[in-house]
Amino acid sequence: MSFLIKGGRVLTFDADKSVSFPVKDILIDGNRIAQIADNIPFSGETIDATDKIVSPGFIDTHRHCWQSHWRTATANLSLLGYLGGILLGRSVFYRPGDVYLAQVGATAEAIHCGITTVLDHSHIQLSEEHIRKCIQASVESGIRSMYCFAPMTLPTSLNPLKMPDLTAEHNRQMSLFYDLAKELPLGGSDNDGRVTLGLGYDGLQFRPLDDTQKLFEFAASKGMPITLHDCEHHNMPALKFCRENKLTSNTMVFSHASYASDQDLEYARDHGAGIASTPESEMQMGHGWPEGFRALRMGVKTGLGVDSSAICSGDMFYTMRLLLQTQRARDNAELAQRGKIPLKLSAMVDQVIYMATLGGAEAVHRDHEIGSLEVGKLADLIIISVDSPLMVASVDLAAAMVMHATPADVETVIVNGEIVKKGGALQRVNWDVLKKELAKNRAEMEEMYKHIDWDQNTVDVGEMWYLMPKAE
């Protein structure tokens, strides 16, 4: 189908990554942008975008979709509490149907917030059926997803913590990954190409180097993103390990990169790797200061991510704002230490908009298809109203997006040429029904694990991950 977006203020990047908002029409033909021009003649369906912002859809470069069930569960917890309570805790109780609902809930949240593409680091590998349900839900949601299959051994029981045979479990999961890699399209004929397979991989230092190199070469040969947690402070030194062991791939995405050395970031830059900065979770979990601006300033492909709805907001507007103001505080503090005050600010709103859109597409190695509004690219875009009490009378539209907008201002979301949010309402799901199903399912699961001593499980997990000597 074809339709026209008429008279919107179209977010456009120049060579310096600065943004402007010229008034243009956008013609969408099928799943692609066919034309961007003044006053395009068209007699078909037309969306009036007069005075509204038309932006590329946001790219979430790091999210664990399956965890959306657990909003508020880790509001006052550190990374250890998250590991013991969610990742190696509540995960044990997930049935395939629970995973399906969690995945639907996460993708609905993302679309509501104007996120059109998500790099989904999915480490809920309890069974093949669990994985199939994740993929099914992603396809049904209408979002563009890089479903990054992440082999990870999860407990078989809690209190006491018991783990299966690590080697056997890893081999089982990797066999399934290679089977999934043969599926075109992933998940079956209902997938029109929006959901593709990627690889999530952690614990590099505990795996045979030759095996890892072969796996990375295989994934890269298929064009799959390879996403890795880089949190050296928490015994996940992926970036340093890859640099020291000359593990290279032009599809790598390192999440967080907190406490990364200049050498590490130079390695990422020189090998075309991406960095996914998730400021809200990074500050709570103790990963370190968000390094999105540092990476960007060093010339690294840098995007933004939410991480997990169990930890923080799914709102990319807030993510942009938080990273921006945190970096400004750091820059100003450095000046204050030298007895200076800022004449001008160095961290700018245009830069976080770039990281949330085209920069994010670069970080996940899809900028040839998404991330900016250009003829020939996939039709993934959002329309933002400026009529709300938070937005009205905005003169600088870039500042309005970063400093004032909320997901409620996102009127329309288009993914692959399909309208998946219209007039503020989700189109692929019946939210009135889904919200009740999600609440009921969460209550059922709360009952299933009410006997668990989460503090004890957190200590058990911390000891297993060799983190307790650092804990205070």
Descriptive tags:
alpha/beta; TIM Barrel; nine-stranded mixed β-sheet; 15 helices; 36% helix; 21% strand; globular
Structural account:
The protein contains 15 helices and 20 strands. With 472 residues, it is of the alpha/beta class. The chain has two domains: 2-56 and 378-426, Urease, subunit C, domain 1; 58-363, TIM Barrel. The strands form three sheets. Strands 1, 4, 5, 6, 7, 17, 18, 19 and 20 form a nine-stranded mixed beta sheet that branches. Strands 8, 9, 10, 11, 12, 13, 14, 15 and 16 form a nine-stranded mixed beta sheet that branches. Helix 2 packs across helix 14 and helix 11 (349-356) crosses helix 13 (397-403). The mean pLDDT is 96.
Poorly predicted residue ranges: none
The largest sheet, given as strand count, sense and whether it forms a barrel, is: 9 strands, mixed
Radius of gyration: 22 Å
Classify the beta-strand content into a percent band: 15-25%
Fourth-level CATH superfamily of the largest domain: Metal-dependent hydrolases
Number of discrete helical segments: 15
Q: What is the CATH fold-level name of the largest domain?
A: TIM Barrel
CATH architecture descriptor name of the largest domain: Alpha-Beta Barrel
Number of domains: 2
Alpha-carbon distance between the two ends: 58 Å
The 3D shape can be described as: globular
- What is the average per-residue confidence, as pLDDT, rounded to a whole number? 96
Structural class: alpha/beta
